[in-house]
Write a structure and sequence with these properties.
Helix content is about 30%, strand content about 25%. It has about 290 residues and is an alpha/beta fold. The strands form 3 sheets. The protein has an 8-stranded mixed sheet, sandwiched between helices. Strands 3-2-7-8 form a 4-stranded mixed sheet.
């Protein structure tokens, strides 16, 4: 078995995604235009993104022995993710989410979820990167020499930025952590707290990158959007994939932005995740350097 380059630790969920013309009123009812069953979870989607971009990656998390857990594990394995570190726990029902997405330009959605459960994870020697979400940060205390990538899109409890090599919060969460500073000062404050490279996402406005002495804005790619569900998780997986391939954080953020933009063509979080050649084609069309 090939030793994975990256290990993603955290949440994996089974998602039911429903598309409607308009959000139902209280006690109301709307006929769905489309419904799909997929899977989500920030760390699991990041793992799938890494695999589609050609990185040897494993996922570690807890799912039940129920049919939902079977579906999550099968989907990861089918897409090339090493599942040998997945824990199947018969006393635990696999985390599920029900998501309603409105088809109009409002971009509104409602997400309800049963929370996933953390479990201790052993990080074996030789893994270059460990990527964690809000669940996985609690589960992987010993990195065994690996570099740490953190998705702070859902607030990570007890986060110690001094441990983090690649820090990817949303801009709003970074402001909640460090105060209402202007963007450059905010990213500098994260670096001063110990984070290595900082890539703060800001939705359709793109992201802001701080690395060493430089801070810059990377705009989002304008692509047709069916749904933005999971786009942030795809961004984080692509950001790490680019870092593993040797791109500097500014190039990596642009690569991640292109990958996330292409993923928005699908209703669910994962079926629109592009392959490497699609991302490079978009970058080339935008006169940006590809791998």
């Amino acid at each position: 078995m090939v030793r994975p380059t990256a290990l993603c630790v955290g949440a994996a969920t089974l998602d039911v995604v429903v598309e409607v013309d308009r959000m139902p009123n209280e006690d109301g009812r709307e006929v769905a235009r489309e419904s799909v069953t997929s899977f989500g979870g920030p760390a699991a989607v990041a793992a799938l993104t890494l695999a589609r971009l050609g990185v040897d990656v494993a996922f570690a998390g807890v799912v039940g022995t129920d049919t939902a857990g079977d579906a999550v594990v099968a989907n990861l394995e089918r897409n090339g993710v090493d599942i040998s570190r997945v824990i199947r726990d018969g006393s635990f029902a696999t985390a599920t989410s029900a998501i309603i997405i409105e088809t109009t330009s409002t971009g509104r959605r409602i997400i309800t979820s049963k929370p996933p459960r953390p479990a201790p994870v052993h990080v074996s020697a030789g893994i270059g990167w460990v990527h964690v979400d809000h669940v996985g940060y609690q589960a992987a205390p010993n990195l065994a020499g690996a570099r740490l990538s953190v998705d702070d899109g859902n607030p990570v409890p007890g986060l110690d930025l001094a441990r983090v090599d690649l820090y990817a919060p949303t801009l709003s969460i970074l402001q909640a952590r460090l105060g209402p500073l202007e963007v450059q000062a905010l990213l500098r404050a994260a670096q001063a707290a110990g984070a290595g490279s900082v890539v703060a996402t800001d939705g359709a406005n793109g992201c802001y990158v701080a690395h060493r002495e430089r801070v810059t804005h990377v705009p989002a790619f304008r692509q047709p959007v069916r749904s933005t569900l999971g786009a942030g998780d795809v961004f984080h997986g692509a950001l790490l994939a680019a870092a593993i391939r040797g791109l500097d954080p500014f190039e990596a953020a642009r690569f991640a932005a292109a990958t996330a933009a292409l993923s928005c063509r699908s209703l669910d979080a994962v079926s629109g995740i592009p392959a490497l050649d699609e991302v490079n084609a978009l970058l080339a069309a935008a006169t940006a350097a590809s791998w």
